[in-house]
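User: Fold this one for me? It's Deoxynucleoside kinase domain-containing protein.
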Amino acid sequence: MEKKQIVIEGNIGCGKSTLLGTLSNDSNVEVFLEPLNAWQDIKTKDGETLLSAFYRDPKRYGYLFQSIVFKTRLRYQDVPQEKQLRYMERSVLTDNYVFMKSMIEMEMIEDIEQECYKQWYSWLTDKVFKMPDAIIYIRSSPETCLTRIKHRNREAETNILIDYLKTIHDKHEEWLQNWNLCPVYVVENPIDRDINSVLEEVKNIGQKIINQI
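Assistant: Here's what I get for Deoxynucleoside kinase domain-containing protein.
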């Protein structure tokens, strides 16, 4: 039995966590959500989490946050796969092609930090990273994402602005429209689409990937 891995991509608030939470009820697949707890367990002496500090002051905490994110993503990818299909929320590809590029474009990171990131990203991905069998991009408009973010009301996300969501959206589009190292499937998820409809489309894609020889 050949084991397959699919990365679920998309903007903050596009519906990834809800989708993957529902998929996790399927005993035939494995689901790895972004390790938010690991990012929130690291705190300042005043008790502010690293994730919250990053959203509040990305220029100060951007490089530090991306370093921790990279480590935790590689850690859960390294967990032995038991089921035939594994879904993962984002990957180190996202960090490089979306979040790091966004921070560079928005001048949130210093030149020397960019160079350091490039060097260890290149080395670690060459040594450790496994390319997924497919990427499923959950596409929602930045405005829809902001509405969902406000509705779920996570404390760490109170400082997220629409301009940041627009930049993240644009970087996803630029990256995935030109990506050719594995198949990319786009699943539209506007504000009025039922989650069960999205779930069914994603499951069909997953079955298609499993059936590929």
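One thing worth pointing out: The longest helix spans residues 58-77.
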